[in-house]
Specification:
Blueprint lengths: L21 H22 L4 H9 L20 H6 L15 E5 L7 E5 L1 H17 L7 E4 L7 H13 L2 E3 L6 H10 L4 E4 L1 H13 L11 E5 L5 H11 L2 E8 L4 E7 L6 E3 L4 E6 L13 E7 L10 E7 L1 E2 L11 E2 L4 E2 L4 E3 L2 E3 L1 H9 L4 E12 L2 E10 L1 H4 L3 H19 L4 E5 L14 E3 L3
Parallel strand pairs: 3-4, 3-5, 5-6, 6-7, 18-21, 19-20
Antiparallel strand pairs: 1-2, 7-8, 8-9, 9-14, 10-11, 11-12, 12-15, 13-14, 16-17, 18-19
The structure holds 5'-O-[hydroxy(phenylacetyl)phosphoryl]adenosine.
5'-O-[hydroxy(phenylacetyl)phosphoryl]adenosine binds next to α5, β7, β8 and β12.
């Protein structure tokens, strides 16, 4: 049982926009869709949307109904990479007040930007997320998502402040201090990855701190896939209510979708983000209820109006209205992606990034294996790599230098400390088809 029953009193009234009658919501979406397409078509720095729409013979004026969105081209993470850093921006640089970045598929990150109005939209979306979790100005909210280029920390922070909660910006890491703050500051809500929370809870138990005896009652967990079983474990072992929050940098950051008190699917703030589900193979739209790849279009963003972004996240749109009364649709919990991106301690990692880092170093052969495990709730990444026979003959000291250089190259590319294991030449299994580069033992 969670600490509080799901009574209306613990869920303050949410934004009216969550409950708009559907005809009104659809009209608002259509108006905003037209504005977004116009902005991107005429002002995107790289002109990519215009080129693609012109090739397809579609003009912004052709968008007359929401269904016409299907005539627009898709965008992918590679489009952000290919136009790095600012190619998809649609406003002059002077209007951009913030930049964040997220992993690209190779060495360079992808860059996303925000005007002041975008920051306001993001803060409002996050505020509505926190309301949906039953939080209010009476809460003390610890933000243990990383602050920095990652959108998690600052996204949750601004949402918490917009709500009027007391925000404690601990950022990630230094778990002992997290536990001290949680106890001493009377923290009632925590925002972090679910895996980091299980780590905090485990360390707290080791230190003799019982989370049930603290004031903590709500967790806002996301940035990585987690399961219903993990939710039950967290709720049963700590007595808090654990909500799933979803988002991605390319669209805004955290705040695209959240579970309400029903904890059954995540409401997408459809007045800001328009969801579609497509078949990732054929790119055809799928009917509501069918599982496929989530495609999102931003309806109120200025710096990067994002049209039909293929998230690679696999989910489905739920059709039935939620018992909470919100009219904005829900997506089911996201359990997997249609590409090979790994999420390690909330950080996105592509095997191709690891490969790019390895290949920068002399003496490393192109045979490697990434092994991901979870120890005490924390993800660990080991990179096994073969070394060329010439190097193997050399002294131990040089091998250690090589290990250090590889670990450094990986850290500077993805920001994660990996254990680097050197293995003898020709010991990593060769494949005749697609190479198996990753063993994920996290279950
Ligand atoms: O992870 C934004 C975020 C921060 C979301 C804090 C929630 C909380 P990125 O680093 O760009 O942004 O990673 C986005 O993470 O496409 C999903 O694959 C994955 N992801 C995010 N939230 C969830 C979730 C942030 N609740 C990528 N469940 C997305 C499953 C998630 N996967």
């Amino acid at each position: 049982m969670t600490r509080e029953s799901h009574c209306d009193a613990c869920f303050p009234p949410a934004s009216a926009l969550d409950y708009l009658p559907l005809p009104e919501l659809r009209a608002l979406q259509l108006r905003r869709l037209k504005e977004s397409v116009n902005l991107a078509y005429h002002h995107q720095e790289s002109g990519l949307l215009k080129r693609r729409m012109d090739e397809a013979g579609v003009k912004p004026e052709d968008i007359k109904s929401l269904d016409d969105i299907r005539r627009l081209p898709f965008f992918l993470k590679t489009d952000l990479r290919d136009t790095y850093p600012y190619g998809l921006f649609a406003v002059p640089r002077e209007q951009v007040v913030r930049l964040h970045a997220s992993s690209g598929t190779t060495g360079k990150p992808i860059v996303v930007g925000y005007t002041q109005s975008d920051i306001d939209v993001w803060s409002d979306a996050m505020r509505r997320c926190l309301l949906a979790c039953g939080l209010s100005e009476h809460d003390v909210m610890q933000v243990s998502y990383g602050y920095g280029l990652f959108t998690g920390g600052l996204g949750a922070h601004y949402g918490g402040e917009a709500l009027g909660a007391t925000v404690v910006p601990t950022s990630g890491g230094n778990t002992e201090r997290q536990i001290m703050v949680l106890q001493d500051f009377g923290v009632t809500a925590i925002c972090c990855t679910p895996s980091y929370f299980t780590h905090i809870a485990e360390k707290a138990a080791e230190a003799g701190v019982n989370i049930r005896e603290t004031k903590l009652r709500v967790g806002v967990f996301g940035a990585e896939p987690w399961t219903e079983a993990m939710r039950q474990h967290i709720q049963d072992s700590t007595g808090i209510r654990a909500h799933d929050i979803y988002g991605l940098s390319e669209i805004i950051g955290p705040g695209v979708a959240i579970e309400c008190r029903e904890q059954n699917g995540l409401h997408v703030f459809e007045d800001y983000f328009y969801p579609e589900i497509i078949d990732p193979e054929t790119c055809e739209n799928l009917p509501d209820g069918e599982e496929g790849e989530l495609v999102l279009t931003t309806l109120s963003k200025q710096a990067i109006p994002m049209i039909r972004y293929r998230t690679r996240d696999i989910t489905s749109l739920m059709t039935e209205q939620c018992a909470c009364g919100r009219t904005v649709r829900r997506i089911r919990r996201i359990g997997r992606r249609s590409d090979d991106m790994l999420i390690i301690r909330g950080v996105n990692v592509y095997p191709s990034q690891i490969e790019a880092a390895l290949m920068r170093i002399k003496g490393v052969s192109p045979h490697y294996l990434i092994v991901v495990t979870r120890e005490s709730g924390l993800d660990q990444m080991e990179v096994q790599m073969e070394i060329t026979p010439e190097i193997l003959g050399d002294r131990i000291r040089e091998l250690e230098d090589l290990q250090g250089a590889v670990a450094h190259a990986i850290y500077s590319t993805v920001g994660i400390n990996a254990k680097v294991t050197l293995v003898e030449s020709k010991t990593i299994a060769r494949s005749e088809g697609k190479a198996k580069r990753v063993i994920d033992k996290r279950g």
